[in-house]
Amino acid sequence: MNAPTHRWNPFEELATLHRGLDRVFNRQLDAGAPGVDGAGAWTPPCEVASTDDGWQVRLALPGVDPSRVQITLHGGSLRISGERPRSHDGDQYTHSEMSYGPFERTFTLPAAAAGDRIEAQYRHGILSVAVPVAERAKPRRIHIAAPDLTSIETKKIA
User: Fold this and answer.
1) pTM check: above 0.90
2) Where are the beta strands (DSSP E) in 11-137?
3) Of 88, 91, 107, 108, which sees the most CB atoms within 10 A?
């Protein structure tokens, strides 16, 4: 009986390592922050998708007031930052898995991005940022110029 084959994927292992390091360092940052547990820097989860029209960046920001979020573009970097404050500072928590405090995510945009046409919307706790591809970078068909071939001169050879 043959055992099922499993292909080793180094990128999957790197992603697992990255998530583990994020957890370790976020806990360290949270533990060293003053105040109630869970206060300090945190990293909201995100996803980036490629579309026919460009790219879509989505961040999960439940409980974050959109007026506390800033989106800036500097060169080829898109920076999203803000803060989720703790709303009940007087409460005594026996358990909390919520993270509060400032956050920041930076994304390097492709050269084909149209930075002047970036749009963002916030709905149901999800921030969606649409980064369109520049018109100059879109594929286009090139017309081939050719002389009019409607009349061709022919000569009879012997």
Assistant:
1) no
2) 46-51, 54-60, 69-74, 77-84, 101-108, 119-123, 126-132
3) 107
